[in-house]
Amino acid sequence: MDEMLAGRSAIVTGAGRGIGRGIALCLAREGADVAIGDINLANAESVAQEVREKGRKAIALECDVGTRKGAETLVQAALEAFGKVDILVNNAGVVGAPGWQDRAEPSDEDWAEVLRVNLMSRVYCSEAVIPHMKQRGYGKIVNIASIGGLQGSSVIPHYCASKAADINYTQSLALQLGPFGINANAILPGILFTDMIRGIHDQGKVRDTSRAELSNEEIFRKAEERIPLGRGQTPEDIGNMAAFLASDLAKNITAQAIDVDGGMRMH
Question: Catalytic amino acids?
Fold first, then answer.
């Protein structure tokens, strides 16, 4: 089968582990060169090496894309390495400021940090790459949101609010950029067994002591019972959707927020 992204180059933020790593590897599998941005350089270098082992070019950069300087530095590094950027996947995300797992309620710092990273990193990275994409008349922007962006939470309301903002911002990008041949879509993952999700469940135990005796694995198994397909998602599941949306197979898809959750939100 032909590679969907042969000859393309991509940026993936927060790609040092979890969903971001899964996305980077799926894009590389489909033929894209990938710039790996992450706040942990060792993790980013490890994923970049995995991309190279798939026969693609890769660079790793330590950067905080929740700042305009960090976003602009990442985009410039990708342009210098690959000569162009066809795909931007805004994946970087947090659930709060350091120590958020131990707080029964989100603090002002937690609210500020999730909005800085989960929303403003999308704004900064998009604004950094859009002039280049407009000049070429081509581009794919994929924002990683969450099913939490379409439903509230008593445990992580700040996180869900930031993901709702991601979805709305994606729609605004699609309206603004469609005339320039640039697509913008969002992916809404469901339950994934990542370190971030484990932290959310730990924080939930702080709020609800009746859950304290359950292991995360037991909580996950109970959660899977709510999923029609009967399993949690994997980073590769999210990566496969990102690769599709970044390809020309999806050239007439824009402004969409697509669940990849095994049917959980419907249920």
Answer: 159
